[in-house]
Amino acid sequence: MVERRWIEDLLVDEVRLRCSYRRQGKQILQFTVQLEVYCRGVWQSVVRYDNAHGFCHRDVLDPDGSQDKTRVFVGDLNATFTHAITDLQAGWRLHRDRFLREMLA
Fold it and tell me: How do the domains of the chain map onto residue ranges?
């Protein structure tokens, strides 16, 4: 069993991607990919992909703590994990802007 965790800065000290997985051999068993924004002195979760609760999904989180859960499955767990990273690397600005608008409204 292999576990790995890392943080990728997308905009230093402002936006980051927190990633983790657990795998057996080459097969991902569990993963989390979370976009976080630094706002008001703390890191806030903005979007999270994972396979908790027995299925792959994306949570879009709001500053008030509510969230919108959408099932996401792209091939197998490995492909879904890769998709999650790629999607958040490409779209972080839109997610950040939405979250900050809601946070500062």
Answer: 2-104
